[in-house]
Design goal:
Elements (H helix, E strand, L loop, with lengths): L5 H9 L4 H7 L5 H17 L7 E12 L2 E10 L5 E12 L1 H18 L4 E6 L2 H8 L7 H14 L4 E6 L6 H13 L9
Parallel strand pairs: 1-4, 4-5
Antiparallel strand pairs: 1-2, 2-3
């Protein structure tokens, strides 16, 4: 191995090792030296038209205390390893659970967009919402149709959007945030726009 082997450093980083350990093993004199070389490589790739991608997983949920009733939504954005990048929630006032589910998905996609995500896996526990986004169910309600259009407008800005229907038990953190929105009455801009 030669001094400062970038290819070897990249293999180590891709295997999950942290930069703290990699710089020495790859023959660099400091973390900064390796970081500078990585940034130079990224700039060079960008100049050549190689696009950076950033994939996130977005968990969303909506809740309504009554249907209709006081409602809220929550969203959690994680990286591919499950590290939480962002959590948010919003109080929606009195509305239905389906409307709250849509607002949760819109909130989550907006937050992913703000983080610079290019690819999103949207995980939710609403069968109706998942099937409407995938095109399996028609959107018949006028209220939901407007929210559906807003959601799809945001979704088109990503290189890819994968929708995954999960069990409610796998969505407990987003559910917690949706209920927190109801209990604290925190207003936000979940589906505004």
């Amino acid at each position: 191995m030669k001094k400062g082997d970038l290819a070897y450093a990249l293999r180590l980083l891709a295997s999950g090792q942290g930069i703290v350990d990699v710089w020495k093993e790859a023959g660099y004199s400091s973390r900064k030296e390796l970081a500078d070389e990585l940034f130079a490589l990224a700039e060079n790739l960008e100049k050549k038209g190689v696009k950076k991608s950033f994939r996130v997983i977005v968990y969303t949920d909506g809740a309504s205390a009554g249907n209709p009733g006081e409602a809220g939504c929550g969203a959690i954005v994680t990286d591919e390893k499950g590290e939480v990048l962002l959590e948010d929630y919003a109080y929606l006032g009195k509305t239905t659970n389906n409307v709250a589910e849509y607002h949760g998905a819109i909130l989550g996609l907006r937050r992913a967009q703000e983080l610079g995500a290019t690819d999103v896996e949207l995980r939710l526990d609403s069968s109706l919402l998942a099937n409407q986004i995938k095109g399996g169910y028609k959107v018949k309600s006028r209220r939901l149709a407007g929210l559906y259009q807003d959601l799809m407008r945001i979704a088109k800005q990503f290189e890819s959007l994968e929708v995954t229907l999960i069990k409610s038990s796998e969505n407990s953190q987003a559910d917690r945030l949706a209920n927190l929105a109801i209990s604290t009455r925190k207003r936000g801009e979940p589906g505004a726009g």
